[in-house]
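Re: the 169-residue chain
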Amino acid sequence: MSPKVFTAILRYLHFGNIKLERLDISTVLDLLIASDELSLEELTSEIQTYFIHLNSDWLKTKIVPILQCCYSNPTTFLKLKVHTLTIIKRDPTCLLIQNDLHSLSEKILNNILKECCNGLDDWAIWQCILKWALGQEKINEFSHDVKKWRQNEFNMLHETMYKLVEEYV
């Protein structure tokens, strides 16, 4: 728990409220996780409501860490998860602009693709899966010039993508 989060929780416990708009979004997300761990149900609910009322365009830029948080405890963060998935359903291409898409687990990405990407054409789904796979640690070390790849590198990419694609298709 960072000092900012710890201070915010102490203020919440002492004063009974918190000014979430004064905190940066990463801190608010960390605060959501900490409030859940400390069983501060009222604060957890308040933070989810705060995220739900934020501008959807802004949330799209931070959708990966929010999804990771939601899937870490889907029952507690159900309101936020439903809201985030609704944003993706409305604009599934928002996944393609994420620089940290690769940090989603295979399971989370698979769930998102199954639940939200009916509006995407096959090419966009393929781009999303390929972007995720290319960001995986073992593939990220490869040359950025695909022309320099050997058969082994293509095989690794295939293995990384195969299970996800097989489950989605």
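The longest helix spans residues 151-168.
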